[in-house]
Amino acid sequence: MEAIRSQHVPVLILGGGTAGITVAARLRGADRGLGMAIVEPSERHFYQPLWTLVGAGVFPFRASERREADYIPAGVDWIRERVAEIRPDEQAVVTDAGRRITYDWLVVALGIQIDWSSIPGLAEGIGTRGICSNYSAEHVPYTWECIRTFRGGTALFTVPNTAVKCGGAPQKIMYLADDAFRRQGVRDRTQIIFASPAPAIFSVAKYRKTLEGVVARKGIETRFRHNLVELRPDAHEAVCENLDTRERVTIPYDMVHVTPPMSAPDVIKQSPLANEQGWCAADKHTLQHPRYPNVFALGDAAGLPTSKTGAVVRKQAPVLVANLRAAMQGGKLVASYDGYSSCPVVTGYGKMMLAEFDYDNEPAESFPFDQSKERYSMWLLKTQVLPRLYWHGMLRGRA
């Protein structure tokens, strides 16, 4: 790609989502004189954890959306272009507009890529014929339309055999749909199926026990080790592969909520920064790249053995900022991220269990009570507290 103009930025942040904005705000708060730029093409910023509740009719879609411009920290240059190439050996990035940006320090916060086209029938069917997904800004309102107008039959909820952002979201919408079907008087003529490649409903034993009880209470049929490989929109059929036997099973449905396959952004996969899985390589404690010491990564784009959630970013960002500033001053990187992740699992209208755990899948809880129990107070946390914490705390570098 021929560069048409160039500039130099001391600290360059790739991505203006949760991770990029949070790091920029914290860096700005620590050093107001530090030259920074964010490369981000989107004019809109979404609080995506709210999309589960948008898809369940609790909030309107507009409640999840703000102007990106309102959250770019003052004094930070906003480059409204897309990253096309990352050239760490040259300490340079090239955008889709041909701009060449050189840097002293790079923060990779490009998020995760949704691969709609990797399942035949999904890209062409999404948003029509009972095929919905809370993972699309364009289509999340259609999830509520599918649930609201459901009159019985089979409701299928799927999880892909890839990393996903907010790993609990595929089952949250299922539990809310179950409640909605009961309210609508159609649950007795409805079969709910959960198809997941995982061997169990949740990876952490303490929370798994609770969710197994929720599944049993709601009469949900689980098909573990099953991965969606094809949709037939006109026939209303889903084809799943049994990962143990490699047998393919066809499941007729009346509505299907699909969690699409996801992967690292192509621009990272194609760069020297990538690890074997395509994510930006990073030390799991310091968040520094193992081969390029002036590169740090966090959030969904980082190749870390933890969940990909906004709560992860809230714990990673202070560590990254502390270590980046230490590296800039030639000091040791002493701040350490322990793998903390949080998964607020909504189990119905007015009920939520807050799962918090670390790299070892051991509970790392914030409250002085048993968080594996479903509580109305945790529902209030999800619907009232966390959105405010996000917009007014995290993105401002305060929380």
Record the SSE blueprint.
Layout: E1 5-14, H1 18-30, E2 36-39, E3 44-46, H2 51-55, E4 65-67, E5 77-79, E6 83-87, E7 92-95, E8 99-108, E9 113-114, H3 122-125, E10 131-132, H4 140-148, E11 153-158, H5 169-184, E12 190-196, H6 205-218, E13 221-224, E14 226-232, E15 237-242, E16 248-252, E17 255-258, E18 262-263, H7 266-269, E19 295-297, H8 310-328, E20 341-348, E21 351-357, H9 376-393
Parallel strand pairs: 1-2, 1-8, 2-5, 8-19, 10-17, 11-12, 11-17, 12-13
Antiparallel strand pairs: 3-4, 6-7, 7-8, 9-18, 14-15, 15-16, 20-21
Helix pairs in contact: 1-8
Care to describe what's here?
By secondary structure, this protein is an alpha/beta fold. The protein has helices spanning 18-30, 51-55, 122-125, 140-148, 169-184, 205-218, 266-269, 310-328, 376-393; strands spanning 5-14, 36-39, 44-46, 65-67, 77-79, 83-87, 92-95, 99-108, 113-114, 131-132, 153-158, 190-196, 221-224, 226-232, 237-242, 248-252, 255-258, 262-263, 295-297, 341-348, 351-357. The strands form six sheets. Strands 1, 2, 5, 6, 7, 8 and 19 form a seven-stranded mixed β-sheet that branches. The protein is globular and about 65 Å long. The two termini are 40 Å apart.
* Average pLDDT: 97
Please state the CA-atom Rg, rounded to the nearest Å: 21 Å
Alpha-carbon distance between the two ends: 40 Å
Tell me, briefly, the overall form: globular
Helix count equals 9
Question: Percent range for helical residues?
Answer: 25-40%
CATH level 1 class label of the largest domain: Alpha Beta
Total beta strand runs: 21
User: Approximately what portion of the residues adopt beta-strand conformation?
Assistant: 25-35%
Report the uncertain regions. none
Order of helices and strands: EHEEHEEEEEEHEHEHEHEEEEEEHEHEEH
CATH superfamily of the largest domain: FAD/NAD(P)-binding domain
- Architecture of the largest domain in CATH? 3-Layer(bba) Sandwich
CATH topology of the largest domain: FAD/NAD(P)-binding domain
Q: List the domain count as a whole number.
A: 2
